[in-house]
Amino acid sequence: MAAAQGRLSDGAGGMDDAKGTEEEARHKGSHNGNDPSGASGGNGKSGGSGGSTAPPAFAAAVEALRAARLRPQIEVEATRAPQRLAPHAYALEAAVVDGDEDLADGRLVLLHDPAGHEAWHGTFRLVTLVRAELEPEMAADPLLPDVCWSWLTGALQARGLTYGEPSGTVTRASSHYFGGLSARPSASQIEIRASWTPREGLGGVPDTAAHLSSWCDLLAQVAGLPPAAPGDASVVTLPQRRGPQSR
After folding, report:
1. What does pLDDT average to in each consecutive run of 10 residues of the chain (247 residues)?
2. The predicted structure's pLDDT at residue 184
3. How distant, in Å, are the alpha carbons of 59, 136, 153, 189, 242 from that of 140?
4. Could you give the count of Cα atoms lying within 13 Å of 240 in the half-sphere of its Cβ?
5. pTM of full prediction above 0.85
6. How many helical (H) and strand (E) elements, i.e. helices and strands, does the chain have?
7. What is the Cα Rg of the chain in Å?
8. What is the per-residue pLDDT for 43?
9. Which residue intervals make up region (Disordered) (predicted)?
10. Would residue 202 count as lying in a domain?
11. What is the pLDDT of residue 81?
């Protein structure tokens, strides 16, 4: 599975400095929780499935992520979490797969600070990066960034999730090739970076499984897949792109 490349940052609370993030690592383990290195504290020790270094609320939130049942077209794996954004972090990477091709990819990071964070208005924060390639004419649509942001908020609302302090960016990038690379067609990419504070439920634990499912709904929309629920007219997906990317 292709990992989403680039830096992740939390746009709330002054934590968006690039120096406070880490480059994405090669993925290890799988979504079923066989790799305990996915959950860790700020001291770099493994939190596993909620071991001695992980607070109970964080351990429960991570277990819910590992147990979530997702669309079969989306492959999700645990990956190394950034160490400097919060005392405790757990990261997942995902790809929307069609045969041997990846249509879109992304990364979702769960952050936890038991002391709370003033800008978060809570003790948990979700941070994401989602990417997909587009037809150049689609990327030129001036409404595309607004539509992509509405897909994120709409995916959360569609599952009845309450959240606060959302922030993020939608970026369009185009590549044009010249000289020895002139035979390559122009390429355009959409990238969504966002963070939000999930509402904490019983025991101070947010419904991370539902938030993961909503995030996968966003990935599916960006990839151009039809809605998971047939007949849902409120969901608008991207038209079919030029072609999937090789894995």
Report:
1. 52 40 33 40 37 83 93 90 92 89 91 91 96 78 89 94 95 87 86 96 92 94 75 43 43
2. 87
3. 43, 6, 22, 11, 15
4. 4
5. no
6. 4, 8
7. 18
8. 36
9. 1-55
10. yes
11. 93
From residue 157, alpha-carbon distances to 49, 151, 198, 234 in Å are: 29, 10, 12, 11
Q: Which of 124, 93, 90 is nearest to 106 (CA)?
A: 93
Domain that holds residue 209: 54-127+140-167+195-221
Is residue 81 situated within a structural domain? yes
**What integer pLDDT is reported at residue 34 of this predicted model?**
34
Q: What's the CA gap between 23 and 28, in Å, rounded?
A: 15
The domain tally of the chain equals 1
Instruction: Please indicate, yes or no, if residue 65 is contained in any of the structural domains.
Output: yes
Q: Which residues pair with 111 in a beta bridge?
A: 89, 125
**C-alpha pair distances (Å), 116 with each of 82, 87, 113, 122, 219:** 18, 10, 5, 5, 29
